[in-house]
Amino acid sequence: MVATQNPIEQLQARFKELEAGFKLWLSKQSLPVEAAVVTSTSAAQGAAIGAFMGTLTADASSTFPTPPPNASLNPQAMASLKQAQALAGGPFVQARNFAVMTGVNAGISCVLKRIRGKEDVQSSMAAAFGSGAMFSLVSGMGGPNQAANAVTSGLFFALVQGGLFQIGQKFSQPPTEDIHYAKTRNMLHNLGLQSYEKNFKKGLLTDNTLPLLNDSALRDVRIPPGPRLLILDHIQRDPDLKEKRGSRN
């Protein structure tokens, strides 16, 4: 009797294959195309989250008074009112704000990763600065001096993001027994395939075996076709691994 696979597991496996295929296609595109796609998809995700959050704060935003057109409020009071309205806006306002924050952050991160070849705290803080500055400008929180407030917001976002990045790095340090999988872990993280690290460990595919990997070896440790293509493509494009593979051949 043939055991049928769980439909949820089939759906998850199919989704992972589609995701891996999309990332493989995206990695072969030019920098402008990749940046545009990453920015658009991240902005769409941010807009969806913002719209949902906006439904929770819609009632709160309606309680803020709307000053008459000819009212003479001092600039500081008007700026404070705009800040409160921006942070407690309805679905449309929050969707716009979150779309800008997530889209700009992802776009800058994508560009810096392609140019610098790595993700570190400097890239993370630069992306956060850009998203914070754009959020300030789009949300109308700048008050009478929008440029200065945009810089201040950007710096605040960058400091928070830098701190969170450092904390995440500290708690994500691998155990000492995993030092033989450091390069493998970094490769899988960059490809978005962290879930397959356990497959490498079960097959004892350490960092030293990376230049020797082929489709058969990855298939033996039960890695699906899509992720296999991504991994092999990364090895062929990586200068260090490509050089080691060539010297051994």
TrEMBL record:
Can you say what this protein is called?
Answer: SAM domain-containing protein
What Pfam family is a match for this entry? SAM_1
Species of the source: Cajanus cajan
Compartmental location: Plastid, Chloroplast inner membrane
Domain SAM intervals: 185-237
**Membrane-related topology note:** Multi-pass membrane protein
Question: What keywords does the record list, in alphabetical order?
Answer: Chloroplast, Membrane, Plastid, Plastid inner membrane, Protein transport, Transmembrane, Transmembrane helix, Transport
Q: Name one GO cellular component term.
A: chloroplast inner membrane
Keyword Protein transport part of the UniProt annotation: yes
Instruction: Describe its partners and assembly state.
Output: Probable component of a protein-conducting channel made of HP30-1, HP30-2 and HP20 that mediates the import of transit sequence-less proteins into the chloroplastic inner membrane. Interacts with CEQORH.
Ranked from the top, the taxonomy reads: Eukaryota, Viridiplantae, Streptophyta, Embryophyta, Tracheophyta
Instruction: Please report which protein family the annotation says this sequence is part of.
Output: Belongs to the Tim17/Tim22/Tim23 family.
MF terms in GO: protein transmembrane transporter activity
Keyword Transcription regulation in the entry? The reply is no
Show the SUPFAM superfamilies listed in the entry.
SAM/Pointed domain
Tell me which positions the record assigns to the signal sequence.
none
One Gene Ontology term from the biological process aspect of the record: protein insertion into mitochondrial inner membrane
Database matches in InterPro entries: SAM (IPR001660), SAM/pointed_sf (IPR013761), TIM22 (IPR039175)
